[in-house]
# Entry
Amino acid sequence: MKLNEIRNNPGAHKRKTKVGRGSSSGMGKTSGRGVKGAKARTGTKVYGFEGGQMPLHMRIPKRGFNNIFASDFAEVNLGRIQKAIDEKRLDVSGKIDLETLKKAGLVAKSRDGVRLLAKGEIKTKLDIEVAGASASAVEAVKKAGGSVVTTFKKKVHMNKKGEPGKKAQRRVKSAEKRASRGG
# Structure
């Protein structure tokens, strides 16, 4: 085989049909696009249109919603922290916080910080400062001789006047009612 003998496999390269080259070709004048309308024009497509049939995106049931006020935590498991310690990617001599976890490659980005979860086991004593932690994760770290400090505080959304929003106001009122009832 020489460079000048290199060819595609038969049928691998199919030439594009030349359109608009006279009526005898069968693809002349309107180039196989029919007459007028959105589909005859260039650069347009009728997305989701199924010829009048109820489109798929309208046929399927809709459930739930996207809560824009939901907390967004990066989750990290105890097992992954222990693995990073064993591989010497994480230094346990100081306090472990978001920055040290990022440097170790255990968490990427998150809007509200890191949440510690209890999957896996921890054998090393460590002092960790995270936004949130599950009760079983806190228990596991304390059992290993370490400590967990949680720092997350839910953001209070303010209205135009600078007062807490309706949800926050309702939360405060219901807390006061509970306090007056049960003391």
The CA atoms of residues 77 and 119 lie 5 Å apart. The beta strands are 74-77, 95-96, 114-117, 127-130, 132-133, 147-150. The first strand starts at residue 74 and ends at 77.
